Amino acid sequence: MRAALLIQRWYRQYVARLEMRRRCTWHIFQSIEYAGEQDQIKLYNFFGYLMDHFTPANSERNLISHIFRENEICRDIEWERYFCYKNIEVPELYSGPHLSFPLTVSNVADLVEAFKNKQNGMPSVEKSYVFNGDFVDRGKDSIEILLILFAFMLLYPNNVHLNRGNHEDYIVNLRYGFTKEVLGKYRLHGKKILKLLQKIFSWLPLATVIDQKVLILHGGISDTTDLNIIAQADRHKYVSTLRPPKRRWVASGGNSTAGRHKVNGRTDNSLQRHCSLAYNSPLRSRYNFQSRSMQNFSSKVNLAVEEELKEQRRMAGLSQSYHDLRSSLSSDSDSDNYETYEDDSNEWKQIVDMLWSDPMPQDGCIPNEVRGGGCYWGPDVTEKVLRRHNLQLLIRSHECKQEGYEFCHNRKVLTIFSASNYYEVGSNRGAYIRLGPDLVPHFIQYQANRSTRELTLRQSVGETERSALRALREQLFAHKSDLLCAFQDYDTDNTGWISLKHWATAVEAVLRLGLPWRVLRSQLVTTTQDGMLDYQGWLRELPITEPKTELVQQSLLETMYKQRSNLETIFRIIDSDHSGLISFEEFRQTWKLLSSHLKMEISDEAILDMAVSIDFNKDGSIDINEFMEAFRLVDRTMNLPSEPNHTKTDE
């Protein structure tokens, strides 16, 4: 018995240590992710400042002005032809599904089959779905995922609901990969696709209410959240939610509601999909039907189902012909003649809160300075908002959770996150929710990667921990100069040594990631002497391999490392034709814009030297992807052996 107790105690301590390592690793990933979001918002705020305070003739303002032309797609008559799928030339070699509108069940089943998606059950009249945002920027298949979701939404407009997430925003897409993905896959039509998706994203509902009791939205709420305001919001004007838009009215013709109708003194957008707050029909009858498998989905289509689909479309206001729908889109276009009113800051703030906010354990509501947008709200705010609207549960996403879901606020707020292996293979499970007639959530957890399911707890934690430490070392390396200055502030006698306590304080002061540096010390600092650290030697020994950049000044190189994501975002903006190439002059303008944002001086000579050094084929232009790859940092520890008896495979 004594031996059994000792073994049990040892095992509990072992599991507790693994859990501590896992949580610490999680904190690293999350802190770096949120710091990136904060940088993105700061950069866009800087762009907004240029637009608001500089004259149209200003060169820096001209570089980025095109990203603020939110309604360009509807004002330009030439864009109308891009709404018509019939005008797209299909190559003879194309062997995929050929779609026609309105869509049929067979069309969508063929589309899904073409994307090799054979899991988790298909939406149908009997099985409704709510997808809670962030459909893009989450991997290499975002566009395929969008096509499937849009196809099912058109097929079952009353049974498939898509909420907007904070990544359904073209400015965010510039940084997090979706823009690059689309342009890489569709070189001929990529620009058109991105322009259309800008508009589509702005029309996605902001929230869904089920049976008048369950509120589903992407981010969260605040102490000012009012669902009545959200339901009436003209959300389509928020093409990007990172900046409050100006309110416009059509001067020619004197009609301020072009293409819309007045009903009881209020503006009605005629299509149910235009509501910013969607209300799902009751769930009662949904579970009386047998769910169909993928194999039978195409073959068992009968007339009754097709008639039901027509009725579903009619009820949703989608019974118009393609020509009529296209005409309504055209009539909803903004005129070239418009004037600006004052910003509707309250409406905009509520939308930002719904897309960007996170819950916190303590009462109150404070700005979300970690992400840079939205707020942190407490249990008292949850109670207030739910009581005001007679709701019983708030379901949201926006935050990765280790088990795929997590309750908080007395189980009245539920976070659901469906992307498993989000930070690294083995970092987290994914989950989705089933709601029965009693509206009690039932959770289904999964791992999308087969190799992950075969890992032991120790292997999974070790794999994720190594990935997190690689990302953290890159952050440390990119801030070498700042860290050296911070260390020297504590080394008043210029000995080259500082205490480990001062090391931890200085690193946090520079990186501002809110990490437990003393806990991480043993994995980041390998050599000490009597509790003191040779900080210059430590900086030299950071296991990072630099690219070959002999022609680049060191100060410019460090700026490149620190501002890599911001720099790529500016490149994507300046590359207005989405060719993937920029000229030397555009390259110079990019760095000048970044230097204005950072309030630092970068000489034209240094920029030209860098441009020449990476113009590999000497054609006077720079490939954006090659440039970013040329300055990618590599952690030498990636070559070290990992946990035994495990071979890592890509997801």
Automatic annotation (TrEMBL):
The record lists the lineage as: Eukaryota, Metazoa, Chordata, Craniata, Vertebrata
Q: Which reaction does it catalyse?
A: O-phospho-L-threonyl-[protein] + H2O = L-threonyl-[protein] + phosphate; O-phospho-L-seryl-[protein] + H2O = L-seryl-[protein] + phosphate
GO MF terms held by the record = calcium ion binding; Hsp90 protein binding; iron ion binding; manganese ion binding; protein serine/threonine phosphatase activity
What ranges does the record list as Acidic residues composition bias? 333-342
Signal peptide location? none
Please list the residue ranges that the record marks as compositionally biased, kind Low complexity: 319-332
> GO terms for biological process?
detection of stimulus involved in sensory perception; negative regulation of MAPK cascade
What is the name of this protein? Serine/threonine-protein phosphatase with EF-hands
Which residues does the UniProt record annotate as the domain EF-hand? Answer: 478-513, 562-597, 602-637
Cite a single Pfam family from the UniProt record. Metallophos
User: Kind of enzyme, top EC level?
Assistant: hydrolase
